């Protein structure tokens, strides 16, 4: 049993509050244990200069933490005047992951801006951001369909993300909180579709190494966790989930 | 009657949710109509270099808006690499206002960091930030007292802020929402204590001017609005409010 | 009597040297006691992108201090690579104030750039900047009329600014020098037209508060000071003053 | 057969020129096909502030490309005034990877600065950087031992990195050049020790996904490639290689 | 005869107004034709970190132009957030030149900050800055002697600077104004002591070249111009000039 | 005899490796003693905005040093987020020098980007950069002619650069290495054409001064050194050298 009473393959409590903020086209608050992220999706009716005229869309993400999302106050990146390497890595990851499940041609020459703002952090903020951002993006695309601006849902499958790791005592564990993450020997983030296809695997030995057997055990845990997350996404999305499911099934054929 | 049905001297609905985020020493979510601001207060056990060795404390504030707090997405200041003049003005204002009601000697060599993050904006974000930040700061100082780090509450009086303005058709109005603010001829922010003392008055003609009579009518409205806001602060603070009240009464003698 | 022998309602010596620098369309050196500011007005034949095509003009201001304008050398903002919050506040204030007395439609699609460079500082630099910038702007607009580029003077009234404050011993005082400003309990900047209309009121308790009675006394002092400043502006402007006066009288009718 | 005549499991030609530059404590030029990277290791006799007094060392890396390392000239990061997200990701990756095979306690309070400067790029610059940087670092540590500053070689095992990917037509391939990388559906970087332990796995579907079977095939290819790279490292290092081997064998027991 | 009526070897009118600004330890306004530069010298009682403990002083310079010093308004470097290459070159040049005539050991562990702010520009701003800065620095060092902080004048000789050039029609000319500078084929700045020793020679063909004969003619003109400038410096400095002269004579022996 | 055995008028060994890097239109590695600089020339088919429509070309240069080009590691300018004054001076110098020997009209609306990256430094990096960049630029222009994009070679003469100086013991010396440069009293860079025309002369007393006689001796040395450098350039350029020679001869007539 883990410090917080969970089994090795157990997720923390996950909630997705839909339409959290009124202005964005899609908005959710995702809660994973004590981690809370506001995920907003905004639609802009043009693409970046390097893509103009191709008839394709684009998805880009920004990520930030409130200074007191963390136990110790962290300095605002706006005050420092630059974005840290960690933030850049995460926002590139979020954008890349979401683009893997969107047919950018069906989106048309539009940009989806994803904003993930962590208001409370307890480990797993980047994976919670991706899981929440998927729902916010789907809501925004649902709105685009409602407004008659696109004819079909451009999303090809559900997408969720989770962290796994190796703990010295517990072995392979799912969904690490901050305390677990700090002492893990191996830390891995897995992004997968509902069909079990991998989108991104990032495993890192923290001043340590790991075997292929450990890699496989971690992937097993992640697959299971992502299945559960997709169920929670479907529930939050209601009828919109059906449109995504239809696309995913076609693909799976 | 105004567009949203309010009378000229009527505030929007105001709520203060206490302990909104777990990590900060003091944390509230303040809601003023559709405007929502997370106000966090952090205690740091040292002061900036220019104040060291004087035995006095310091209070400083930072303010930011989520990109989709607004109807149109605004670019993150962290991405631009610099803070706008508007943000600087607001964070200087918040810090200055709070320092006016804190006995910095009683605080000791500590810094209170105030973070006001607007997650949804509909006018009056700077005044809502001040009203909410006052409560977050009081909670943090209550915690310092509980932890035995300071002996007496350093806050000398309640402090709240509200906007007033002159509308071409309505005349002087209290607590402008975004739509009203956009078309107001005069825009004024007033910061006051519970005793009715002024801490800051900033009145601006927007490509326009105003008379001293109008200034006085606006101040009357503001005084009334601030009285109501202080009542809501007291309710949110519960027993802690009594400590502040005691100090204020002593001062008033 | 004050430290420098003035009465509470007495301005320092004020001089406005016209055509101080040869290149700008309008240029003055304003001297208020020991405070000296070069105010230049430049005309650019286009407006910022967000205003194009509206047929209206724009006025924007920049403010800076030479490193040794102050008793201690201050670091150049260019060397630091960013502008301080104080500078941003002041340049926004100057631009906003001047726009309040200019009919931007009569200006046409032109930008007036105001540059206020403090070469020697002894308190009141922002109010001296506004009072001097008004004259520089009027000179530049006079040149535009002479050149036949605009048909009528777009300025609707004279505009001047002055500081007032509350001193612990002296009570309310007019036109604070640096020493007085450093120890004032309340500091207020007032910007007014010749007709006595308010354009901006910014009153701040410096770790202190003030009453509405004090506010009113300070406004009385300011009104009187601004009347004197306008007389000095008129003298500097000579015949150009008559054009502004004519507009102001029309407005006052 | 691939475009350049290689088999799917075939590396490009790899050369490591030792002591390429005279000033650094360790310096190599690594050539992988047309990709050329100068890898320098510098020893500094102190650690960053956050680590002082712990008796441990630190390893940090910087990565850059000459503007014409690429077919189209890229703008210098120094001219832009900021480092791109891609560069940050790579330099964090290099530092993290090397730290995994160094006993930081044996290093003592010293920092090893790794500088990887790509002078010619044709895909795989980050993995070539790691493979070359390992050799540069070992040379620098060999010098520290020669100088009597450390008693034992702090490196625990050989470390090399290689890219693998999935090509639409070729299937899984090893060591992608730029052209292959541009059209690959999946791109994965693998960092491994000579003992076959994983240090980092980063697999990414490029607007695409991949199965666990594909992941396994790619890992098989990578393992084989890294074995060959380690042989080339050993040859370059000569006698120094024996010291690392001894440590690795002890660990493997 | 030149456009402005001068002979080829004729300086423009030069004036040096002493004690122009009240706060700096040394302050002059230098006027060379239409070029006007405020030169201030500030004494700081410490040296930069890299020089501490050596018992030697340091001299550093900053240079800037008011936006409307020029015929077209130039953007402030503070607004751009960075200093141009031209400004950097000039401020490095001023500091280096002054250091050549100061015995830094006699100065003690102090920094002299030179600020040259061009308020009106008509060519030759960098040479006017050096000529004026020399006087401001001497005044500041005179004050240090008066205050008993240093025992002897650390300046070893007078120093002045002037521009020379080659004009297509006029041949070699002295002290170019802006118009002449814009069309000159060769532009050279010469910095010399009263003893005729060279401190800096910077000659540049502007998309053109020049012969050694032309170089020599230009140096002849410069030598003559600098002699005249030193006389004007001496007059401005009064008795202080004698102390410098004494040092220069000793050196010349 | 100098420390490294050279005579006062003796260059170090100079080598120019042609086509060092594959991607640029022109590329050389120049070696001057222990100083090594990669010089790349890139052709871009447009000019900066301020030159468009004039039918003329432009040449611009960038310069950088690898962190361990020097004996002590220097911080990357990209990491600091800004370019030092020294770098700016050097890149302005390189661009200006090359433009002096190119007929920009014959180049057409194209930009030549020169990148000089010092990989190993031992004094004279800026002069080696210019001498090498001239060859890289000529190679790139040769390619433009081969591709039929320009009809005639726009280069009007050979151009090379060398440092000279005054050593306390040796007197005037040619081509200073780092050690000599550090202790030189006078440091001068000379840029000349094969015809012996001066393009740039920058002589600086390092906390010291120099006489016109010394200036002349240094120029004599430089002239001799540059003759030798031009021979090495001609050898590296092979047949392309003839095209430049033809232009130079025409000019010389």
TrEMBL record, chains A, B, C, D, E, F:
Matching InterPro entries: ExoRNase_PH_dom1, ExoRNase_PH_dom2, ExoRNase_PH_dom2_sf, PNPase/RNase_PH_dom_sf, Ribosomal_Su5_D2-typ_SF, RNase_PH, RNase_PH_bac-type, RNase_PH_CS
Domain Exoribonuclease phosphorolytic: 10-139, 158-224
Coiled coil: none
Keywords: Nucleotidyltransferase, RNA-binding, rRNA processing, Transferase, tRNA processing, tRNA-binding
Species this chain originates from: Bacillus weihaiensis
Protein name: Ribonuclease PH
HAMAP family registered for this protein in UniProt: RNase_PH
Root EC class: transferase
tRNA processing as UniProt keyword: yes
Family: Belongs to the RNase PH family.
